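Table 4 source record.
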Amino acid sequence: MTLGDIIRSYRETNNITLGEFATTCSLSKGYISMLENNINPRNNKPISPTLPSMAKVASGMGIDLDTLLKMLDKKQPIQLTSDKAESSIPTLIIDSKTADADKEFQQRMAHYAKFLGLYDQLSSSNKEKVASYTKGLLSTQQMEEDVLAAHARTDVEQASDGVQHDLDIMNDDSMWD
């Protein structure tokens, strides 16, 4: 089933209107209609919901995002963020059969959805702070990995003449002027 089929089936089974479902999901009635019809009226192309939007749909249905992703049996385009400025972030095509077999993938998607749901609520200036802080964390992580790699390198056995050569260089004060 497509996301639209899943939503329509849920609404019909639970006898709720499009507007009631939209309110439950904290999404607009128009957006839920686009999801159900799987068409973006602006460009007449299949709609590509964001992970946070899909998480809201799942929540409105009383299920988690992982369960919703498992229900999809066709390829479903999904955007990682709703921020139009983040155009460098690709749209994913999720094949639910592949996703079923890959628990790590499903966990990542759930983490992305949770993170992006929070991120989307931030002001523009705070989004910049998140990006800056994340870059700092990545830099620190790289340095830590480099230090660990350097320490691991000391476990390499060297020939005795190589060790002596290193000691000679270290003890030769003329090399350090």
